[in-house]
Amino acid sequence: MNSTSHPLHLCHLKKSTLIINRLYILFHSIAILILIFFRISSILTLFHSKNQPLIPHLLIFISELTLSFLWFLNQSFYWRPVTRTVFPERLPEDDQLPPIDIFICTADPRAEPPLGVMNTVISAMALNYPAEKLSVYLSDDGGCPVTLEAMREALKFAKMWVPFCKKYGVKTICPEAYFTSEEDVDEAMVDSHEFGADKHRIKEEYKLFAQKVTRMSESESCIPNKDHSAIVEVMVDESMHDQRKMPLLVYVSREKRPSHPHHFKAGALNALLRVSSLISNSPYILGLDCDMYCNNKNSAREAMCFHLDPNLSSSLAFVQFPQTFHNISKHDIYESQLRCFFKTFWLGMDGIKGPCLSGTGYYLKREALYELPLTQEDINLMEVKQCFGSSNEFIRSLFKKYNAKVLDCEKDLFDESLQEAKHLASCAYEDDTKWGNEVGFRYFSVTEDFYTSIHTHCKHWISVYHMPSRPTFLGSCITNLNDALIQSTRWSAGLMEVGLSRFSPIIYGPTRMPILQSFCYAWLALFPTAFISLWILATIPFLSLLSHITIYPKVTDPFFLVFLYVFVLSNLQHMREIHSIGASLQTWKYEQRVWMIKGITSHLYGSTHAIMEKLGVKEANFLPTNKVVNEDEVKLHQMGIYNFQTSSIFLVPLCSLVTLNLLAFVVGIIQIVLHGEYVDAIFIQTFLTFYIALMGYPVLEGMMLRKDKGRIATKVSCYSLIFSVFVLSFGRFLVAY
Ligand SMILES: O=c1ccn([C@@H]2O[C@H](COP(=O)(O)OP(=O)(O)O[C@H]3O[C@H](CO)[C@@H](O)[C@H](O)[C@H]3O)[C@@H](O)[C@H]2O)c(=O)[nH]1
Ligand SMILES: [Mn+2]
C-alpha cells in the first residue's frame, strides 16, 4: 500500500490554540520581566533607605522568581499543540501484525483487590487482535497464592468471555464494567434471542467467578510475602496447543529476599522482560497497572498504526495513551483525573518529539529498552553477559525473532525453559549487570516511568501520544485526600530525585534532546519546588500585614496593573484550557486548591525526602495506592466534600495557614476601615490573605462546622493552634529584618 497517499495516521497542528498560546507567552513574559525589574529596583531602594525590613521583600522575590521560572519551563508544553487521527483499517492483514506481550503489575492484594486485577487481565485477553499474538503476563509482587488461584479462575472465565465479546462485538471488554454499565452492543443484537440468552448465561458465570475470587481473597492470607523463591506458571491447557484461540496467560512472581533490594515496579517489569523473552519474546509490550483495564478493544491496532508506519517505525519507542479513570466524580476535588498532565502536558510534548512515558497504557518497543549496539556476528559474549546477565538463553532471545513455538516444544524442553525463566526471575540475577542502569526500566527513581523515559528520549527515540475520544484504558482514581497526598509525596520525591541528580533534565537534556522537550522534562522534575513559593505566599503577605509592612505596589502605582495583569491573565489562560476540554469552571477552583494543598504539604515532604535520600539518611519507598472501594468515602467524593481523614503531618500546616490568613484578612479589613487612606498600600496583601482563606474554606469548614467522620479532628485543630503560635512568633521575628 502506498504509505503517503494512504497513511496509517495523521497529525494535525492546532493553529488557533497555537496562536493564542504564543501570544499569551509573549505578553506574559514581558509582564514578568517588568515585575522582576520592579522587585530589583524596590529592593535596591530599600537597601539604601533602610526604612523597611528587607527579608520579606527578598522572600517574596524568591517566591516570584521560582514561580516565574517554573512558568517559563511550563510554557514548552503549550508551544506546539497537535492532535492525531489513526486509520486502523489500513493496517496489513492479521497474519502480518506483530505479536504483543502485555505486562500487568500487581503488588498487594490488600490495596489492589484480586477481582479488579483479574478484570484487567481478562480485558487484556479480549483485545481485538489475533489471539495467538497476545501473551498476558501478570507480575505478582505480593507473591500471594490468592492471586495465582484467582488467575486460574480468570482463565476459565475468559474462555467464555473472549468468544462472547468477539461474537457480539462487545465494546466494553472488561466484564465488571460491562455488567455494571448500560448496554453497549449494536442495537440490532439487543433484540436477538440468542444474544439475550448468551448474555444471561455469561452474566451468571461472571457472578460465580466474582464470588469465588472475592471469597478467596477474604478467606486466604493476603499479606505480601517478602521472602520467597521465584514462581513462573504458564497457564497451558489442551486448547492452547494447536491453533491458539486464546491469548497465552503467564503468572510471574519474582524471587523476593529481605536482603535484596527489589526496586519496586521497575524491578518487577525487568523480571517480566526477561521471563517473557524466553516464552513469547514479542517485539512490542503493552504496559498496564493492575487497575487499568482495557476499555477500547482496538487500542493495539491503533498503536500499530504508528509502530508500523515505515517513516516512524525505526525511531518510535512507544505510543502512550492517556491515563483516564472510571470513577471520576463531577466534583473532582482531589484533581484525581490529573487533567493538566494527561489532557494538556502530554499533548503538548507530543508536538515536540513525543510525550513522557506515564507508567501505564503504553505500547512500547522492546528493543528501546535494550539498546543493542551489536549484531550477532560481532558480539563479545563477555561484554554482553556483563550487560544482560549470565543466561545464554536470554542472550539468544535478544537476537531471535518472535518465539511463538515454545508451547509446541517437547515437555522436557518446556520444563527446561521454565527452569531458566525462574533463574531469570531470581533476585541475584541482576547482580553485577546493567539491569536497571542501562538496560530495561531504570531504578534510580520511584517514578521509574519518568526516569526511563528521559533516557529513552535522550537516545533519540521518539514517542507518540494518542488520545482517542473513547477512553482506551480506565483506572480507579483516588477518592480521598490521604491517598492523594501520599501518592503526590511519592511522585514529588521520585521526580525531585531526578531533578536534583546529574540527570536533571535541565542540565542533561538540552544537548541530548530538543530544547523544548528538555524544558518539559525539567518542569516535570522540578514542579514540586513550587512549595517554596507557596509557603512564602501563604506566610509573608499575612505576616507583613500584621507588621505594617507593605510588600506590593500601591493601587495607584502603574506596577500594580502589571501584578493585576499577571494574576488575571494566568487565571484566564487556565480557565480557557479547562473550558477547551469541556470541563466546568469548578474544575478551575478545584485545581487551584489542590495545587495549593499539595504545594504546602506533599511537595514539601517529597522534596525533603529526595534531599534526605541524596544525603543517605532515608530510603526510597513505594506504597501502592489504595484501590479498594469504600462506600462512605465514595459518597463524600461524589458530593464534592473533602474527606480529611489523613495524617496530622498533612493537616496541621494546612489548618494553621488557612486560619492565620483568615485572621490576618480580618485585621487587614479593620486597618482599612480605621485608616481609610491605607487601603491602596495594603490592597494586594489583603487580597492574598482573602484568596488563601477563600480557597481554604473547606479546611475551615472541616475544622469548625462539620460533624461527620471526614471532618478535621479537634486534636488536629489543637496541634494547629500550637503550630500557628510558632509560625506567628517566628515569622514576626523574621519579617522584622
Ligand atoms: O513494588 C511495587 C510497587 C508497585 N507495583 C505496581 O505498580 C503499579 C502502580 O502503582 P500505584 O500504587 O497504582 O501507583 P500510582 O501512583 O497510581 O502509579 C503511577 O505512578 C507510578 C510511578 O510513577 C507509575 O509506575 C504508574 O504506572 C502510574 O500509574 C501498580 O500496578 C502496582 O501493583 C509493583 O508492581 N511493585
Ligand atoms: Mn495507580
UniProtKB/TrEMBL annotation:
Transmembrane domains' residue ranges: 23-48, 54-74, 521-543, 555-572, 649-670, 682-700, 712-735
Residues given in the record as UDP-alpha-D-glucose binding sites: E112, D141
Organism domain of life: Eukaryota
Entry membrane topology: Multi-pass membrane protein
Protein name: Cellulose synthase (UDP-forming)
Keyword Glycosyltransferase annotated: yes
PANTHER family: X-BOX TRANSCRIPTION FACTOR-RELATED
Protein residues bound to Mn(2+): K265, D289
Pfam families xrefs: Cellulose_synt
Keywords in alphabetical order: Cell wall biogenesis/degradation, Glycosyltransferase, Membrane, Transferase, Transmembrane, Transmembrane helix
Keyword Membrane: yes
Gene Ontology BP term (one): plant-type primary cell wall biogenesis
Gene3D superfamilies: Spore Coat Polysaccharide Biosynthesis Protein SpsA, Chain A (3.90.550.10)
Top EC group: transferase
Active site: D141, D449
Gene Ontology cellular-component terms listed: endomembrane system; plasma membrane
EC number(s) per entry: 2.4.1.12
Localization in the cell: Endomembrane system
GO MF annotation terms: cellulose synthase (UDP-forming) activity; cellulose synthase activity
